[in-house]
Write a structure and sequence with these properties.
26 strands; binds flavin-adenine dinucleotide; D-Amino Acid Oxidase, Chain A, domain 2; Enolase-like, domain 1; seven-stranded mixed beta sheet; FAD/NAD(P)-binding domain; eight-stranded mixed beta sheet; alpha+beta; about 500 residues; 13 helices
Length: about 500
């Protein structure tokens, strides 16, 4: 790559988020370069990816390559979360659907190759700084093979994970109750592991943190703990000693190392954070550079792929029609904030469960730490609300009522993804937030299917045939919202007739 060409997009970092965005944008015809600082091989983590990650792999076009690679299956978790007895959380009881246990350097190399095959240029390089203020092309300064170089691009994507090359220019906000530190150990076993947990993740809480044990092959297992970063500092002693001390506090996770040899141990940051701004005129933050959730969720890779996918759609929109750049970046930002808020709420629930069993400062502090600063409208609160419940009951008991579109219902402009672009359509107005989809059901399409008045059974049939097949429970939830918000009303009946006027 020469020093001064102006590319469409330069991506900093070749983890799941960076590779996903690069692959998609290159395959949609844009000139893309990825500047990636290769990971230290000694830091190669084993991570699990839930079965639902497949849909994103498919959307990014990497599913076949991942399946061909043959990563071991992950069939769920055995969990002692604030519990004395373990709970088996198998993903799918009949075993048909499974997640993956991946060695990250292998997954990352595979995803980068897929980005390259699609036409992205991949360069091993460390980005030192970025100038991306104003609307001029961004300038990225990097080092490669001992030389300093720079490149210009219409947009720069920060996909550098926790490093946050752009995000750390004053945009990152840490969650004070979740400044965490992880200690990870890689264990080797010559024979079989004592218990047959090969395709399960073991997860356990203890007074001062929580731990997990996860395999990547019949002989290799990673056993890790997450502790408070402020009170358990590595500077107080060698990492291996701190790790052993924490592992000793666990009952099941530590026991999974019996008969195995510790090959190496390392520490890394596991804090939660988000960003005040996810995008600017010439930059976008994706994956962990944008926001980082609790590693407990095992959703980090899936979230990074989703962020890369939506980031690609937003940038593609901005590249083909600069007048829609603001709308596209706002849409991307809204989604990132929603994902972070939902995951932050899940972390709080987990902390509450653990604190009920371990009333220690570690868990109590986390159980009390509500995140009001990053809260977003909770659509689930609307779905659980009395109006929607009452509407649901009404729908259930009024088979013969015909429902029709209320022409007085207020619609508001709303951005949606269509194909590879973000465009403006409409959504229904609710007191909480504009809503276009509920449980994957398109509220407007559903409303329009009822223009001439239809019974619930009729509407379900019409929606499934003309819009998309959906489970009846999701359909009823969406319909209840439309009725509760007054968007659908009973069709008036002509006097003496059983059909609408
Ligand atoms: C202890 C722990 C356990 C976890 N376990 C799981 C799990 O089981 N399942 C799961 O789904 N998620 C897990 N996660 C989360 C997951 O690792 C991340 O969410 C995911 O890697 C984010 O992907 P990313 O592409 O955004 O960033 P990263 O994967 O961090 O990729 C960033 C890339 O940028 C490169 N880079 C950094 N700085 C520069 C620079 N200056 N110049 C050029 N390149 C640079 C890095 O080398 C790296 O290749 C865990 C996280 C932690 C901390």
């Amino acid at each position: 790559m020469s020093a001064e060409p102006c590319l469409d997009v330069v991506v900093i970092g070749g983890g799941p988020a960076g590779s996903a965005i690069a692959r998609l944008l290159a395959s949609w015809g844009h000139r893309i370069a990825v500047l990636n600082r290769p990971r230290a091989p000694t830091r190669g983590q084993i991570e699990s990816i839930p079965p639902s990650g497949r849909k994103l792999m498919q959307a990014i076009g990497v599913l076949s390559a991942i399946e061909r690679h043959g990563f071991p299956a992950n069939r769920g978790n055995v969990v002692w979360w604030g519990l004395a007895d373990g709970r088996d959380e198998t993903f799918d009881a009949d075993g048909a659907s499974h997640g993956l246990q991946v060695l990250r350097p292998e997954l990352d190399a595979l995803l980068l190759r897929e980005a390259e095959t699609a036409g992205a240029e991949i360069l091993p390089a460390t980005v030192r700084s970025v100038s991306c203020e104003g609307s001029d092309p961004a300038q990225v300064y990097y080092e490669t093979a001992g030389t300093s170089q720079s490149v210009r691009a219409r947009f720069v994507v920060d996909a550098s994970g926790r490093t946050g090359v752009v995000a750390r220019q004053g945009l990152r906000r840490y969650d004070p109750a979740h400044r965490m530190q992880a200690y990870l150990g890689l264990w080797h076993h010559d024979g079989a592991w004592p218990e047959n947990y090969g395709d399960r993740t073991l997860v356990e809480t203890y007074e001062d943190g929580w731990g997990w044990s996860l395999g990547s092959s019949p002989s290799a297992r990673q056993v890790a703990v997450v502790v408070d970063a402020a009170t358990t500092r590595t500077s107080r002693g060698p990492i291996a000693r701190a790790y052993a001390k924490e592992l000793d506090k666990t009952r099941h996770v530590g026991a999974s190392t019996t008969g195995a040899t510790l090959e190496r141990v390392w520490a890394c940051d596991a804090s939660m954070y988000t960003a005040t701004i996810m995008a600017g005129p010439t930059f976008l933050l994706v994956g962990d550079a944008a926001c980082c959730i609790d590693p407990l969720s095992s959703f980090g890779v899936k979230k990074a792929l989703a962020s890369g996918w939506l980031g690609a759609v937003a940038l593609h929109t901005a590249l083909v029609d600069s007048s829609r750049a603001g709308i596209a970046f706002d849409h991307f930002t809204r989604r990132e904030h929603e994902v972070y808020a939902a995951e932050r709420a899940r972390t709080l629930e987990f902390a509450e469960q653990a604190a009920a069993y371990h009333p220690s400062p570690f868990w109590t502090r986390r159980a009390l730490a509500r995140d009001t600063a990053n809260a977003v409208p909770d659509v689930n609160a609307l779905l659980r609300g009395p109006d929607v419940k009452a509407a649901h009951e009404r729908l259930r008991t009024a088979d013969e009522v015909r429902w029709r579109w209320n022409h007085a219902a207020r619609l508001v402009p709303y951005s949606v993804v269509r194909g590879h672009e973000i465009i403006v359509e409409e959504a229904i107005r609710t007191p909480l937030t504009p809503l276009r989809y509920v449980a994957g059901v398109d509220l407007l399409a559903l409303g329009r299917a009822s223009q001439d008045g239809r019974t619930v059974a009729d509407l379900f049939d019409t929606y499934c045939r003309h819009v998309a097949p959906v489970p009846v429970t999701d359909f009823l939830r969406a319909l209840s919202v439309l009725v509760a918000e007054g968007v659908l009303v009973p069709a008036p009946f002509a006097a003496g007739s059983s059909t609408p006027a």
